[in-house]
Amino acid sequence: xxxxxxxxxxxxxxxxxxxxxxxxxxxxxxxxxxxxxxxxxxxxxxxxxxxxxxxxxxxxxxxxxxxxxxxxxxxxxxxxxxxxxxxxxxxxxxxxxxxxxxxxxxxxxxxxxxxxxxxxxxxxxxxxxxxxxxxxxxxxxxxxxxxxxxxxxxxxxxxxxxxxxxxxxxxxxxxxxxxxxxxxxx
Length: 186
Known about the structure:
Layout: H1 2-18, H2 48-51, E1 53-60, E2 66-73, H3 77-82, E3 85-92, E4 97-104, E5 108-110, E6 116-124, E7 127-129, E8 133-136, E9 145-152, E10 155-163, E11 177-185
Parallel strand pairs: 2-8
Antiparallel strand pairs: 1-2, 3-4, 3-11, 5-6, 6-9, 7-8, 9-10
């Protein structure tokens, strides 16, 4: 019995002695830069394949490396015909005032009381993203999203998607204004 107890104690001590202590390495902080591509770039409109591409910006992988990916945006003609306008809510945080604006898909909007210009790109009623494509899973408003670019003083400060049901996902952040997608209109 003594031999058995000594054997068990030896195994336990041996297993603790063999374990390597792992130091937690801090995750490197790498700044993410916005893409300089403009939604309304005239060169993009010359080719359908180029017009439907958008740099989604750098993607962080868990190891801290940056990988820039480009996704093709595919919106069926039936969706383009069905959804032609969007209602955008602009909140001025300083005055605590919210204003609804109706804008055509593919249009521009100068936000009153600011130096902001909002340009809209594609509207997706049921946002679906694969490794290489952004498209819609259906014609229903299950996960509506609108691609936008915000320009301030002639400089692009935001490019991304506004999600109707998930406004906190990649929101437009500005010291004074917030911009949300309120609804899509036929």
